[in-house]
Recover the amino acids of this structure.
């Protein structure tokens, strides 16, 4: 199959290629604009999900729930000492009460700093591997000192967010495939319309000895070039929009949203989309034209 995208001067005259603008080019620009945006959404969300999983893997929060302050402090200090001695624990840090009061201020106001308020002691724990066996051993060690203590895995209570990100990534991938299918459908319709428009010309070409494959090459080159030019235009506009959105996300100061970034490999994949769609259009045009020519000519 010929993959030459630039038609010769004779081909352009034969199929009215002298027009500088065709609707096909703008249609493909719109299709690639939407496709690149969907692809960027999927890649960015996948990157954020991976970052979230790395940050939450093996992280625990231990809550020492004890109404008596003296007992609570004693259990918290003993728990920190035991945790730091466990081989499974990479880091164990007792959260300062002032930090907890600051976190509670939006809900409790100034009362969060009241020393008589029984705020649980919090211990941040980083495990080395973060598997279920390590979590179970750490839980047993903590509850041996403070039976009422709670051990929460960050991975567990953030799993709805992770699942949502996975769903968004899958949805974005489905949108890219859907846009590819829609592009193929548009190409097929355009090829059939072109065949009908140039029906007489094609009959003359056949009488002069041209084969169906040679005629199909005329259409596939034109459509491939339209797709490539429109795709490059749409991709450039989409990349500009993505860069602008990235700058806006950076100003929000959110750790979660800041993970919605594109790496070098992601940008390369997005840049290859116009070429991929041009190849898809070439193949779809060839199949459509040859199929119609075998039936009507």
């Amino acid at each position: 199959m010929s993959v030459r995208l630039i038609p010769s001067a004779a081909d352009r005259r034969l199929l009215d290629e002298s027009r500088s603008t065709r609707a096909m080019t703008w249609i493909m620009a719109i299709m690639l604009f939407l496709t690149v945006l969907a692809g960027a959404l999927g890649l960015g969300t996948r990157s954020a999900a991976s970052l979230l999983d790395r940050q939450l893997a093996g992280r625990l929060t231990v809550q020492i729930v004890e109404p008596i302050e003296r007992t609570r402090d004693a259990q918290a200090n003993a728990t920190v000492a035991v945790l730091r001695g466990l081989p499974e624990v990479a880091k164990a840090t007792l959260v300062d009460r002032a930090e907890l009061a600051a976190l509670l201020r939006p809900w409790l106001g100034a009362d969060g700093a009241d020393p008589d308020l029984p705020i649980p002691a919090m211990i941040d724990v980083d495990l080395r591997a973060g598997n279920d066996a390590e979590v179970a051993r750490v839980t047993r060690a903590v509850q041996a000192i403070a039976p009422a203590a709670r051990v929460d895995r960050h991975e567990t209570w953030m799993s709805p967010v992770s699942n949502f990100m996975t769903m968004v990534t899958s949805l974005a991938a489905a949108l890219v495939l859907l846009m590819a299918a829609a592009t193929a459908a548009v190409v097929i319709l355009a090829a059939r319309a072109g065949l009908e428009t140039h029906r007489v010309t094609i009959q003359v070409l056949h009488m002069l000895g041209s084969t169906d494959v040679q005629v199909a090459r005329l259409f596939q080159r034109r459509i491939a070039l339209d797709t490539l030019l429109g795709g490059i235009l749409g991709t450039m506009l989409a990349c500009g929009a993505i860069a602008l959105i990235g700058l806006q996300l950076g100003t929000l100061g959110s750790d979660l949203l800041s993970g919605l970034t594109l790496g070098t490999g992601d940008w390369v994949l997005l840049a290859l989309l116009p070429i991929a769609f041009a190849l898809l259009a070439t193949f779809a045009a060839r199949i459509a034209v040859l199929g119609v020519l075998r039936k009507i000519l």
About this structure: The first strand starts at residue 59 and ends at 64.
